[in-house]
Amino acid sequence: MNTHPFRAPTSVTMRASREGRHISGAERIVDARDVPAASALLATRAARHPLGPPDEMHIAAHALRPEDIRVLPELKQESHELPSVADARHTLARILRSAGISERAADRALHTLCTITGVPGAQVLDEDGRDTGVVVRARRLDHVGSSLSDPQKNHFLEALTLATKVASAPGVLAELCISDDPSYLRGYVACAGTYHRVSPLKEEGEPVGTRIILVRRGTDLEALGHYLRDIPVIVR
Ligand code: PML
């Protein structure tokens, strides 16, 4: 059902950095009357980020038109708890291959995922796993179940929300993520309609964490960026 609970939907975005390096970002869509509460929540969260405290923080609010909002059902979910990082990474590559991604692309995507960090968005790779040179950060998204009172990051709900929006974008084959929180070891791969939670994708304290999006050959990267940045999505 394409309905959402907002009379005056407003996107609230937070970005925080230190010495020019991105450390925290978050997205909410709330009713206009809840913008002060959402802004305070996101400011608290940036200040408490494990990679913080930031020396620069931006919070922006942007009014949305109710009729522009798309309501999407959340992806199906599966959990994979593995005994080691090596097993978890192997499982992630296996899931990609079972969704039709080539072995070479799966290996390249996994290598990129496990070696970079500090990117303010997702790195977009083509279906052979080659870097397209595009980094895109999905904005304007939220889940109907998100809290307006708890500043603690809900890694799972936020990641599921973002993955649901990314999976609905034109040309997307898969999305992979390792959290940049040094003590959050669970990550995911979203493909073929399912959000696979996989753990542990890194060792405690390991300074890696990023997102990768794999796209079909010929995907219009401008249109992909526009959808992910500008089209508001509520997940339920
Ligand atoms: C992040 O910290 O931004 C990514 C969190 C990944 C969540 C994986 C999960 O718990 O399902």
Automatic annotation (TrEMBL):
<keyword id="KW-0547">Nucleotide-binding</keyword>
<protein>
    <recommendedName>
        <fullName>6-carboxyhexanoate--CoA ligase</fullName>
        <ecNumber>6.2.1.14</ecNumber>
    </recommendedName>
</protein>
<keyword id="KW-0067">ATP-binding</keyword>
<dbReference type="Pfam" id="PF03744">
    <property type="entry name" value="BioW"/>
</dbReference>
<dbReference type="GO" id="GO:0042410">
    <property type="term" value="F:6-carboxyhexanoate-CoA ligase activity"/>
</dbReference>
<comment type="pathway">
    <text>Metabolic intermediate metabolism; pimeloyl-CoA biosynthesis; pimeloyl-CoA from pimelate: step 1/1.</text>
</comment>
<keyword id="KW-0436">Ligase</keyword>
<dbReference type="InterPro" id="IPR005499">
    <property type="entry name" value="BioW"/>
</dbReference>
<keyword id="KW-0093">Biotin biosynthesis</keyword>
<keyword id="KW-0460">Magnesium</keyword>
<dbReference type="GO" id="GO:0009102">
    <property type="term" value="P:biotin biosynthetic process"/>
</dbReference>
<dbReference type="GO" id="GO:0005524">
    <property type="term" value="F:ATP binding"/>
</dbReference>
<comment type="subunit">
    <text>Homodimer.</text>
</comment>
